[in-house]
Amino acid sequence: MTRTPPGPLPPERARLASLLTELKAGTGLSLAALATKTTFSKSSWERYLNGRTLPPRQAVQELCRLAGEPEGRCLALWELAESEWSGRAAPTTRPQRPTPAPTQTPAPSETPAPRSAEVRPAAGGRGAVMAILASVCAIAAGGLSVALVLLAGQSADPRPSPPSPSAPAPRCRAAACEGRSPMHMRCGAAPLTLASHRTSTGAHLELRYSEKCEAGWARMWSTRIGDRLELSRPDGGRRPHSAEVTDGIAAQSYVYTPMTEARPGTTVRACFRPVAGGSRECFDARV
Known about the structure:
Layout: H1 11-27, H2 31-37, H3 42-50, H4 57-67, H5 72-86, H6 125-152, E1 192-198, E2 204-210, E3 215-221, E4 228-232, E5 241-244, H7 248-251, E6 255-256, E7 260-261, E8 267-273, E9 281-286
Antiparallel strand pairs: 1-2, 2-3, 3-6, 3-7, 4-5, 4-8, 8-9
Helix pairs in contact: 1-4, 1-5, 2-3, 5-6
């Protein structure tokens, strides 16, 4: 059942919507084009991207494939948003129906269970009850691992996913990409990860590179409001570009620096400046 909650979005849904919007921008597709390349309509995507409706798990997976982005972090955000949306994240205890079987369901910490696919309850009756119970068990068992994946900023597959064969061509190349957004210029589809780094404050950083755009950039996540990330070239050929975490939603999403031209053999550098509790940290990578 579709619900349209009034007022500000809960943070879990706002973070998911922000990330999906970034991925959609990276594909370079309009809402109409996105609908033709997925199994969901234009109006559905509009609701998913503004956060008013929780997208199905399949929609998140399809958008990740189109954007060439590994699914791990996106699905971790979706799990948390789905838990909030369905009410399973609430601390209250719901009454359970008595069952004739003498055995009790073990606690999640005692018997780990594999995460199942999205469960759609049948309309009414025992089927609906069993489907809901199965979904609750799955999220309870997988909740801890999902939270760890989200906080660690790790994905299920560290390798870049292949871009969609029909993905639009990038909008810039080499010097024309200087200072531009990797997502808006369509350079974010299946980029290479040149290097990664975890800071002393727990933020995750990556240096990324697009062969088609001949440009590199840096991104950060698991950050705090006020954290800054700077991208530069040690050869001094270009001026540095920086990005800052401006709000709580951005702190739980990817934040990207503008791009810099980076041909094979070029060295790029990322420097992280925490708002508090740490010193400046830098790392390099060679294209």
